[in-house]
Task: inverse folding
């Protein structure tokens, strides 16, 4: 029995998902934005492709997909980007399609909802306050030493986040938000190493997870520029067990029954690991490729397989993994077509082919060799390619 996936993409990504779905004999429909019409979508893997001006405009998206459903039986709705998670949830609710609905989706998109849920379930989170009641904001400022970070509730990653250093700056910034203040939260700034854990979940159990540590924190890269980097965390790393345990605890707290997740944590100077946020999708910035090079597990392909297993009532088993020592480096490039041919070490496992971007993944037999290459290549990329542009307030 064939299954039809409707894939939502407000950004160009998810090619591996669509290709794997087609290999598995599924029908694959893609709904994306008009401005992405000329992206290299895998037309060979698509049964049809549809375009709308925006995917988050209501009720247009509900009406558009409902019209598609007159002629296509839609079995599963898959958000390929973080901005599509809430849209997919609302569509599932309207079409009564299986999968994560509105309430659960908020725990993976709304930074306030996910923090409140995590704290209620006993997960360590930085102190925070909803920018709603000004007395509560005042109390937060009094009890929490600066700096603080102001975060939009429904943006992705570090988009729109601002660091504030004194009380007057807080009130001036809040004033500029006007009627959209309630769409923000303010959080205690915690300094430390930032990690991400990428997982596969099936039947409420984490069946695969891979931990990594960022180089420069993503917030710093987004706001000040630099070469983004992240490295797979070694099995002997002293923080690994606690990091994976916190990841499992958060996934259970958020109530995700199956799917893929990308979670971020920080180890504060007090030694505690604090939960920052979690997304119910494959990590961006080519982290999916890093995971595959380090472990042999393709998160996009496994997402297809676990959805098919659930649809057919079959058990799902994650493939056998390996433990490589991989590192990813990525930056905006001054050159439209950066030449990476002189990055020639045998451990170079992948190079990015994208306009005005430079990216490399190394995969080594030892952590020491990996660290040596990452350090050298980071310096080379800063010299050869690095371009910096002002941070945008939104990613789409």
Result:
């Amino acid at each position: 029995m064939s299954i039809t996936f409707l894939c939502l993409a407000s950004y160009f990504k998810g090619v591996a998902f669509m290709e794997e779905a087609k290999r598995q004999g599924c029908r694959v429909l893609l709904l994306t934005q008009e401005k992405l019409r000329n992206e290299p979508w895998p037309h060979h893997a698509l049964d049809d492709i549809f375009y709308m001006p925006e995917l988050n405009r209501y009720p247009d998206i509900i009406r558009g997909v409902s019209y598609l459903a007159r002629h296509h039986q839609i079995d599963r709705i898959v958000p390929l980007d973080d901005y599509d998670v809430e849209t997919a949830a609302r569509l599932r609710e309207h079409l009564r399609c299986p999968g994560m609905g509105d309430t659960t989706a908020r725990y993976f998109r709304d930074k306030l909802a996910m923090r409140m849920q995590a704290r209620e379930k006993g997960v360590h989170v930085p102190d925070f306050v909803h920018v709603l009641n000004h007395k509560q904001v005042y109390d937060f400022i009094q009890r929490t030493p600066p700096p603080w970070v102001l975060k939009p509730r429904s943006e992705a990653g570090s988009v729109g986040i601002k660091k504030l250093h004194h009380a007057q700056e807080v009130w001036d910034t809040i004033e500029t938000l006007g009627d959209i203040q309630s769409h923000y939260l303010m959080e205690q700034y915690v300094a430390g190493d930032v990690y991400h854990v990428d997982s596969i979940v099936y039947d409420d159990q984490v069946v695969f997870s891979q931990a990594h540590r960022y180089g420069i924190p993503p917030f710093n890269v987004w706001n000040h520029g630099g070469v983004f980097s992240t490295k797979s965390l070694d099995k002997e790393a002293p923080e690994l067990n606690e990091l994976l345990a916190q990841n499992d605890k958060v996934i259970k707290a958020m109530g995700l029954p199956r799917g893929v997740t990308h979670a971020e944590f920080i180890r504060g100077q007090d030694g505690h690991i604090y939960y920052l946020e979690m997304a119910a999708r494959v990590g961006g910035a080519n982290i999916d490729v890093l995971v595959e090079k380090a472990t042999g597990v393709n998160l996009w392909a496994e997402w297809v397989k676990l959805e098919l297993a659930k649809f057919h009532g079959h058990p799902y088993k994650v493939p056998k993994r390996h433990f490589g020592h991989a590192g990813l480096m990525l930056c905006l490039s001054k050159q439209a077509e950066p030449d990476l041919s002189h990055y020639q070490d045998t451990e170079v496992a992948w190079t990015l082919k994208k306009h005005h971007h430079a990216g490399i993944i190394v995969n080594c037999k030892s952590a020491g060799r990996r660290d040596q290459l990452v350090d050298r290549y980071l310096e080379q990329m800063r010299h050869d390619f690095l371009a910096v542009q002002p941070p945008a307030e939104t990613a789409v």
Observations:
- The first helix runs from residue 15 to 23.
- The longest strand covers residues 192-202.
- Residues 192-384 form a domain with the D-amino Acid Aminotransferase; Chain A, domain 1 fold (CATH 3.30.470.20).
- The mean pLDDT is 94.
